[in-house]
Amino acid sequence: MSGRGGLRAHLLDAGLAGVVATSREASLRSYRLFAARDPRVLIGIDPQGAWGQRDLLRLMAARCGVSADPRHTSGHDVIDPERTLAALDAFAERLAAVAERRGPVLLGTGHPHRLLGFYVALADALSAAGCAVLTPAQGRRVDMTTRFGLRTYRLDYVRKVALVRDADSGRPGGEPGAHTHSPLPVRTALAAAAEAGGPLPELVIGDHGWVCGAGQLGFEAIGPGDTNDPALFVGEAEGSVSVAVPLDDGVRPEHYRPLTRYVLNRARLSQ
Q: Residue 146's pLDDT is what?
């Protein structure tokens, strides 16, 4: 695979764009919850605008390519691959800019089962370019509300990419990490960096609460978002998120490798 045309074909073949696995029902439910200001869907964003359901549907149609028809209520959602490619170009520009000035960066994921490899490759490339890849609050406990009630996690790093693990795990470091949308991990990491006297990241790269939580605090933040993640795209529209890349964030890990090569090539960070 080479170039933009090859990546576009891959996006469609792998279900990263085009018809995606995320259901229309799941997306519309997220828009309803966001409009109701449910913190589970806000994931760290404090919206400035009113953002009713119709507003969100129009926004997601413009940013992702989902159907703008409110009567379309079932089936699979759709992401326009051209919008994904344009956002990946913008994502690469932000990587290039921070690499050029050798700024400190922070990477974290709430999708370690799927996206960890993507972020590890970015961390390696940015480190090789002279950026300090920060790892604040290693081992710090983070209490998060889940559907099972309040649970305690530990902030951990895998090759300088942050994630959370169940604090009660019998094999510390052995499990791949927990899936979470919470902004609490990035808030914990940023607070620890500030308490230590810095440095603070000039760019935060991640997904879910990592992007929204950092962006809401005034840090430049970029990352991928699915059609049921309206918070990233609202943040982008309002200026608290620098780049939100529309794509399915739940496909097999190997399907993200061509995206990694593409953005690193565009950012002139290929090794």
A: 75
SS3 letters across the chain: CCHHHHHHHHHHHHCCCEEEEEEHHHHHHHHHHHHCCCHHHHCCCCCCCCCCHHHHHHHHHHHCCCCCCCCCCCCEEEECHHHHHHHHHHHHHHHHHHHHCCCCEEEECCCHHHHHHHHHHHHHHHHHCCCCECCCCCCCEEEEEECCEEEEEEEEEECCEEEEEECCCCCCCCCCCCCCCCCHHHHHHHHHHHHCCCCCCCEEEECHHHHHHHHHCCCCEEEEECCCCHHHHHHHHHCCCCEEEECCCCCCHHHHHHHHHHHHHHCCCCC
* Chain mean position to CA 98: 18
Predicted pLDDT at 2: 56
pTM, to two decimals = 0.95
144 has pLDDT over 90: no
Selection from 195, 212, 207, 128 nearest residue 163 by Cα: 207
Residue 166 · residue 178 · CB < 8 Å: yes
* Angstrom distances, CA of residue 197 to CA of 187, 194, 216: 15, 5, 21
Give pLDDT, residue 171. Answer: 52
Return the number of other C-beta atoms located less than 10 Å from residue 34's C-beta: 25
Q: Is residue 170's pLDDT more than 70?
A: no
